[in-house]
Radical SAM domain protein
Amino acid sequence: MEIEQLRLRLRALGARPSHEARLLRAWLQGHALDAGPRTESNRLPKALQAALPELEAELGALARVRSEHPGEDGTRLLVELADAQAVESVLLPRDGLCVSTQVGCAVGCVFCMTGKDGLLRQLDSGEIVAQVALARRLRRVHKVVFMGMGEPAHNLDAVIEAIELLGTEGALPHKNLVLSTVGDLRVFERLPQMRVKPALALSLHSTRAALRAALLPRAPRIDPAELVELGEAWARASGYPIQYQWTLIEGVNDGEDELEGIVRLLAGKYAVMNMIPFNRVDGLDYRRPAAESAAEIARRLHRAGILTKLRQSAGQDVDGGCGQLRAREAKLAFV
Ligand code: SF4
């Protein structure tokens, strides 16, 4: 269900703008649709009131928890969609939530399980937002990052519709909506036109164009320096720093050349570098760097003036862990 279709349906049932806003707010907060005090002035039209149970059931079926997997750095939810496909959402520390935007992904990053099977289908805007409504039934959500399964730029209309609803009726501050991309130029074209201005995360992973192309095989062939320039322009326009994502893989992108490259590209930029040590994935030969080497890389970048955070993984599309629940489940279905 696209959000626009839902709005049209509410209007066809007689909803005035105030009714529409109230029902959407109730849904996005994870409440029953007719929650809140009933007064003469906010009474719903009869047809709309009568349709609420059916609507409630349809919205509830957009995203259901199939299983929960608590971990040290967040709880992964395997979320079942109405057609029984599944995606992952992650309840992050500090009231964050990571949502998926596609079933599968066409970018095929070599360190990511989601990219292994390619793109299976797009999520519609209702399914993206339903992950937030679902999570809010479990706990508070004050930040949403679009870094789960899928490349948001490959489903941009639905993602923008979801961001615009979450930044208005969803009561989330714009800077707490984080749109992530591997560097699709369409994102940079659309951002300035958006009513809700999200923060931006860019998957960098290497400062060397050739290595980056090998790690992210079907990402746009944009030079890392150009990507950083585009990011910087949005950071200045939006007032939020760009969050660069870097999956740290031993012997691949953790060498001196890359550290020098990061300093060269990011010194003086309005940016945060998120370093995420690679998480082991069955069937992939990459290695996770030792904790002390990863910490030393972060310290050295810090000393060179690059604000660097060493993250553990939860919710980052780049952690290689994303997609594993779904993949494991698919494997079990075949044995
Ligand atoms: Fe797609 Fe993100 Fe996985 Fe790359 S890391 S394949 S962009 S889901």
The radius of gyration is 21 Å. Confidence is low (pLDDT under 50) at residues 314-321. The chain has eleven helices and twelve strands. The first strand starts at residue 64 and ends at 71.
